[in-house]
Design goal:
3-stranded antiparallel β-sheet; alpha/beta; Rossmann fold
Length: 216
């Protein structure tokens, strides 16, 4: 990424409250800026609002960027915040082609719905100097990290933003889990590890604190 591009991305990032990109790394005489920001938390925690605040300034610049969302996510056609605001997204089944063409910033919503192979693609993007911002739920219905989220941590992100929500049961401010409900009752059936459930109306979801969540 040429120095002029780094400056432009920094300006847009500062406008959105991100701050400047981390220090550059010189590899083989080539300037390589590596930056991975991860936004995690339960449902209703404000992850989408955080992503919108970080990436929406890019819409008013000439910086080439793309924002992806899993095709499995059927609830919205864009990154939508419950507090208002949205970002247009590309619905995809895989991130295999995410780095193709001219792109300086990649955003990925609902990252837990992708695969470990998709995370490897993002790792290559970061090493190539593309700024990557992702958001998603960290814990599955068993209270364990989704495999793609675990793979993200193995990339050693420069910044991790963790959001909590209001518990839908006791109304405390420290909801950390997403309770999956099937016909109004906690979903506790055993699934293959780290299986992302569809967000298409089949199940409903609540934010719950550690005291109120029901785990298998």
């Amino acid at each position: 990424m040429p120095t002029s591009r780094i400056s432009r991305v920094n300006q847009a990032a500062s406008a959105g409250g991100v701050g400047v990109l981390p220090a550059a790394d010189l590899r083989g005489g080539t300037l390589c800026v590596m930056d991975l920001t991860v936004i995690l938390g339960p449902m209703k925690g404000g992850k989408s609002l955080e992503m919108i605040s970080l990436l929406s300034p890019l819409q008013h610049t000439g910086i080439p960027h793309r924002i992806y969302q899993s095709a499995r996510h059927g609830r919205d056609t864009a990154v939508m915040s419950r507090s208002g605001g949205s970002l247009e997204t590309l619905k995809v089944h895989t991130l295999a082609g995410a780095t193709e063409g001219d792109v300086e910033v990649i955003g990925v919503d609902e990252i837990h719905m992708f695969t470990v192979d998709d995370i490897a693609v993002l790792g290559m993007a970061v090493r190539a100097g593309i700024k990557v911002v992702v958001a998603g739920i960290d814990l599955d219905h068993r209270g364990q990290l989704f495999a793609p989220v675990r793979a993200l941590f193995e990339l050693a992100p420069e910044k991790v933003i963790y959001r909590r929500a209001v518990c839908d049961v006791c109304r405390s401010l420290d909801a950390t889990h997403t309770q999956v409900l099937e016909h109004g009752k906690p979903f506790i059936r055993e699934l293959a590890p780290s299986t992302p459930l569809p967000d298409d109306g089949t199940y409903t979801y609540e934010a719950r604190c550690r005291r109120c969540v029901v785990l298998p």
